[in-house]
Design goal:
The chain is α/β, with parallel strands linked by helices. The chain folds into 2 domains: 174 residues, 3-Layer(aba) Sandwich (Rossmann fold); 185 residues, Up-down Bundle (Dehydroquinate synthase-like, alpha domain). 46% of the residues lie in helices and 15% in strands. Strands 1, 2, 3, 4, 5, 6 and 9 form a 7-stranded parallel sheet that branches. A two-stranded antiparallel ribbon has the order 7-8. Helix 7 crosses helix 10 and helix 7 packs parallel to helix 12. The longest helix has 23 residues. Keywords: Amino-acid biosynthesis, Aromatic amino acid biosynthesis, Lyase, NAD, Plasmid. It comes from Gloeothece verrucosa (strain PCC 7822) (Cyanothece sp. (strain PCC 7822)). Its cofactor is NAD(+).
């Protein structure tokens, strides 16, 4: 073939199809006394990868945990010194105030990033995040965005963090008045649940995490919901054995969904594990986070179950059993902010924010029966307003029966 040098060759640039299959592996461990020097779990996890003999690590700790576990800093230092052939703790731990407030401050992210740079962590180093779910979210976001990802070991210290927020693949902070507006999908290197941290929780935090267990039971496991209903008294009286079983099964169901739903990074517009959460997230914001996350979820569950009942999906018997169980655990269903339900009212902005967060069409999970769900793409706001009224009257009737 003769090519004329005075003519440019014509090239048909076809698309280059790229596929990058990625598999993430991480273990969720259950233990007691994680930082006792004779407990090798943490050290073994750090040296599982032998690319470097001695690993570097920093710790970020929830200040609320330190209030109740005053020897934690010493235990952590003693543990590091005892296992110095495996890892070294560089710098003093960073202490941050726990609760949702920590996710509202960009300065905290900057300070963690600055500390990572100062001590010279690399991508094969570790960040230990010790605290409740909000602190884990904050530190997870910082870890995922430094060096495009430093290994994160989550050490959840609340029921809610051990059975839900601390075991998944999401990290995030709040911005523009919206929960988790900034965030990443970045699985942790490992999750270490130390049941001993639960002994010092106040009753609100003890109870709050049970809401997520009820949520996942309602949408996935009727037998698990029955277990919770049977052992309400033991949970209220803080029976550790029953709570540990609730945490384990709840974590198991969450992890199964993340791994097997076909959408672990939520690329679609459906998110069943957020049953009851569109209202919960909005109520947290409306109350300036006076509500614990689990308390807001309990209200959101009650609201969506009531809507499911009034819509003809859920039987009255199942609806009553759900509300009775939530009430027996000590959850309140009605707060004044729930009544902000005009057509463009504050509460219903949660629906548009929920849709915006996921993209695509609105997708809400409703309950068809305990353990079985149905997704809908449209809702009747008048029916939701009625649901709020029904909940308010249900709470009033329970109070009247209590004092009659």
């Amino acid at each position: 073939m003769t090519i004329r040098i005075d003519q440019k060759p014509q090239v048909d640039f076809q698309p280059i199809h790229q596929s990058v299959p990625i598999t993430f592996h991480y273990d969720v461990h259950f233990t007691r006394g994680l930082f006792e020097t004779n407990n090798p779990l943490l050290a073994k996890i750090m040296v599982a990868d032998r690319k470097a003999r001695i690993k570097q690590a920093i710790a970020v700790i929830d200040s609320g945990v330190l209030q109740h576990h005053q020897q934690l800093l010493k235990k952590l230092q003693d543990y590091s010194e005892h296992h110095q052939n495996f890892f070294t703790l560089v710098g003093k731990p960073i202490i941050v105030k726990g609760g949702e407030e920590c996710k509202n401050s960009p300065k905290l992210i900057e300070s963690i990033h600055a500390f990572i740079d100062q001590v010279g962590l690399c991508r094969h180093s570790y960040i230990l995040a010790i605290g409740g779910g909000a602190v884990l979210d904050l530190v997870g976001y910082a870890a995922a965005t430094a060096h495009r990802g430093i290994r994160l070991i989550r050490i959840p210290t609340t029921v809610l963090a051990q059975n839900d927020s601390g075991i998944g693949v999401k990290n995030g902070v709040n911005a523009f008045g919206k929960k988790n507006f900034l965030g990443t999908f970045a699985p942790p290197y490992a999750v270490l649940n130390d049941f001993n941290f639960l002994t010092t929780l106040d009753d609100r935090d003890w109870r709050s995490g049970i809401a997520e267990a009820i949520k996942v039971a309602l949408i996935k496991d009727a037998d698990f919901f029955e277990f919770i209903s049977i052992y309400v008294g033991e949970l209220v009286s803080r029976d550790r054995s029953i709570m540990e079983q609730v945490i384990y099964r709840c974590a198991q169901l969450h992890l199964q969904h993340i791994a097997n739903s076909g959408d672990p990074f939520e690329n679609g517009c459906s998110r069943p594990l957020d049953f009851g959460h569109w209202a919960a997230h909005r109520l947290e914001h409306l109350t300036n986070y006076r509500l614990r996350h689990g308390e807001a979820v309990a209200i959101g569950l009650a609201l969506d179950c009531t809507y499911s009942y009034l819509s003809g999906l859920l039987s009255q018997q199942h609806w009553q059993k759900i509300l009775t169980t939530l009430a027996a655990l000590g959850f309140s269903f009605y707060i004044s902010e729930l009544g902000l339900t005009s057509y463009n009212g504050e509460l219903f902005q949660g629906l548009s924010e929920f849709q915006q967060h996921l993209g695509g069409e609105l997708t809400i999970t409703l309950l068809q029966e305990i353990g079985k769900v149905r997704e809908v793409h449209q809702v009747d706001l008048k029916c939701y307003q009625l649901s709020v009224n029904v909940l308010e009257n249900w709470v009033k009737s329970q109070r009247e029966n209590l004092f009659s």
